[in-house]
Amino acid sequence: MDFSTWTNAAFAAVAVFGLVLFGLSLLALRRAPSPRMGLVASGFLVVALQGIVIGVLLFAGGASPDLLLFLSAVFEVVLLVVLFAATLVR
Amino acid sequence: MERSGTWAETLLTFIQRYPGVHLREIRRRLGIPIGTLDYHLYRLGRQGLVSVRMQGGYKVCFPETLIGEGPPIPEPDKVLIALLRQPVPRAILLQLYLEGPASPQSVGAAVGASGPNLSYFLKRLEALGALDREGAPGQRVVRLIDAKRIHEILLRYPPLPESAIDRFVRFWSELHP
Predict the structure, then answer these.
(1) Of A4, B29, B51, B63, which residue is 20 to 30 A from B175 by alpha carbon distance?
(2) B169 closest CB neighbour out of A28, A86, A88
(3) B165, B175, B177: residue with CB nearest A24
(4) How many domains does chain A fold into?
(5) From CA A89, how far away is CA A72, in angstroms rounded?
(6) Can you list the residues of chain A whose pLDDT is less than 50?
(7) pTM metric for this prediction
């Protein structure tokens, strides 16, 4: 396999694990409703979205590496902000 | 999905393993529909294999026969065992057993219980003869009345294992500066 195939597979894995953890966090939110758990669920949703969006763009082709990197960085920033807020929520 | 023919067996084994378990917890852990659960509990009760009682607003279930050669659960212990299915009273007794007598405040801090919640469970445990509180207000000390009995109960009736969701909730809930 060439490098681009591995990249596709890596983002597919991000999407799958992100969705699994998002599902788990929704169950946790139902069990213990709280702003913290809501933020954690949002964080995992962002991870899943990152995997899906970047994965689809990679698979479709045509997107420039700069755009993919920029989008990936935006998702990372949003994720870190959400997890930062989740950690600080009392 | 569990086959209906094995529900009764699964239910009986679960209640034998975790005496005093709350009905709601059984439904959550085993995923039995409430109608099916009620039906099998009724049948197991008629056969003299389990008993269901109300305690603290919850329906709790006890086996009439234990797994193996264990003696039947003494009646006075049943109320305490059902109470210990909740994490806070269990943590209080464990803390007092491991660390010895302590002020209510330090017990509360150790088990992560708030004032009213802690006070409620201390009163319940005191009423059940598990602990007593000595000293003037402000200088009270809580201690186990019979540490050996509490040790046996804590060991013989372990808590329900945490599910993946329980662990997930606990991990994220404990994160704060």
Answers:
(1) B29
(2) A28
(3) B165
(4) 1
(5) 26
(6) none
(7) 0.68
Total Cβ atoms within 10 A of residue B161: 9
- pLDDT at residue B1 tops 50: no
Enumerate residues 118 to 177 of chain B having a beta carbon within 8 A of any beta carbon in chain A.
164-166, 168-169, 172-173, 175-177
**Could you tell me which chain B residue has the CA closest to the CA of A40?**
B172
Q: In terms of residue numbers, what domain contains A80?
A: 4-88
* Level-2 CATH architecture, domain B83-155: Orthogonal Bundle (1.10)
Count Cβ atoms within 10 A of the Cβ of residue B126 and give its class: 0-12 exposed, 13-18 middle, 19 or more buried. Answer: middle
What's the whole-number mean pLDDT along residues B61-72?
77
Q: Tokens 């264990």 correspond to what residue?
A: B70
With tokens 């034998």, the residue in question is B16
Percent of chain B with pLDDT over 70: 94
| Residue of B28, B29, B114, B168 to mutate, interface with A, max A Cβ within 10 Å | B168
Residue in chain B nearest A33 by alpha carbon: B169
pLDDT number for residue B4: 53
The CATH code of the domain at B1-66 is 1.10.10.10
